[in-house]
């Protein structure tokens, strides 16, 4: 019951700030949060025997947290639809087109996006994703006959679709393969722990928690400090390897406020309360070293948020 409540809370928070859409792809997005409590329920996490495949209809606005087969059938023209897919932190999303009956020439489309888009902001940000933005959109009408399966780079993905004709339909099979080195993650819950490791790769990784939380850094190991003496670097300026804590009310880490920069090793707890709608732990790696950060997070209660708000001198959101 507790896990189900967390999933519902996550989706409620998500939908209260839900997309106004990327106007290039969803030009008339008027989706509202009405009735969204029923979209993510206990059956999404139901244990399904391996020999059976979970299946259910796909809604015009939907959240999918389970592997299975999902079918959308238009009962009226649906011009602005989006389905959010989310997996565990150490998984990615695989979307396979099983059957598609839409009119591409008539303006219908199905587009898989490698990440999430909300209110025009994208996760992961362009700074943190290996692909150029346009390559993160895969249009069935352009590539469906030759590319039947699309795989995300992280634990979240989206499907945008538009269908004009009643009776048009498509079926997707969603799987969640293991990702041995997860990078760029959205947490499904407001509390938990995670270990992020970047093994000598020049990349940036963000762990996003769409809640106001307390972050506790239990361990931070930056490889460059094993070979070079620690230097005083205000704001970690010039450091090629560091961790930053970010806060904000949008999805894009590059548009969030830097709360703290960490460019030194930590072997004991260091904690901070961030009263933002979205909190991000972001690691920047030069690729020359193995970097590792271990952290825990928990949801702030109303009294904590109120105290932070009263005591905070920042106006971006509340930190303490």
UniProtKB/TrEMBL annotation:
SUPFAM superfamilies: Spermadhesin, CUB domain. Residues 185-306 form the Corticotropin-releasing factor binding protein C-terminal domain. Keywords: Disulfide bond, Glycoprotein, Secreted, Signal. Residues 53-176 form the Corticotropin-releasing factor binding protein N-terminal domain. Residues 1-23 form the signal peptide. Pfam families: CRF-BP_C, CRF-BP_N. Disulfide bonds join 60-81, 104-141, 183-205, 236-263, 276-317. InterPro entries: CRF-bd, CRF-BP_C, CRF-BP_N, Sperma_CUB_dom_sf. The keyword Signal applies. It comes from the Eukaryota. GO terms for molecular function: corticotropin-releasing hormone binding. It is found in: Secreted. GO terms for cellular component: extracellular space. Its main location: secreted. GO terms for biological process: hormone-mediated signaling pathway; negative regulation of corticotropin secretion. PANTHER family: CORTICOTROPIN-RELEASING FACTOR-BINDING PROTEIN (PTHR10278). Binds CRF and inactivates it. May prevent inappropriate pituitary-adrenal stimulation in pregnancy. Belongs to the CRF-binding protein family. This is Corticotropin-releasing factor-binding protein.
